[in-house]
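Protocol step 4 of 6: structure prediction from sequence.
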Amino acid sequence: MVAGLLDEFRADVEKVFGEELVSLTLYGSHASEDPDAGSEVSVLIVVRALRREALSAYRAIAHRYARRGISTPPIFTESFLKESSDVFPLEFLGMAERRRVLFGKDVVGDLGITTENLRHQVEFELKGKLLSLRRMYMGTSGNKEIVGLMKDTAGSIVSVARGLLLLADQGAPHGKAEIVGGIEKRFGLSLPALREALAARRGEKIPQDRAEDLFFGYMDEVERLCSLADTFPAEPGK
């Protein structure tokens, strides 16, 4: 199913960007031998120059593929990509570990990916997610929406928290439950609310009468992850 979808997607991307297309790279779970069930398909598009007409043409097909599981990709020009690998180390380190080139050259392999700004990115994103959780909680109107909020945010929070293991020079797994387990073991934490939110993403039920208590435990755990990021030394000049 995914293989056929990727063939169709690659053909459309080639048609949209034409001779400007440098690379189309599959990364993340679906670039591994054992993809996470239900995970979105993540791709990176790199072009020589990004023309308005091409971006508009991609927009016309983006919704169709998003409905079928291919998330809207980052689109880089070659020059912008080379200038940005130091700004997004968490994402590019993940791409470097699990990727498959579908068209063109291996642009990620050619990047000089550095961890110089990793601590800053992990701290910035975790604290931003904590602030967003508080704001989104204010917009909920019942326990069902609180449960949905935890299900919708747990995956991205854990993906960023993976950076804590990279900062600690640990081998960082990619599976969400394994990342949480690695953080608990490495830093001596217990993250039961985060584990329960991840389980809910896989289809397990959270009783609605527990939703609010669980959510506050969930926020406390994210705040502890933020505090962990603060324990690492800041990059020089920060």
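Step 5 (inspection) to follow. The radius of gyration is 19 Å.
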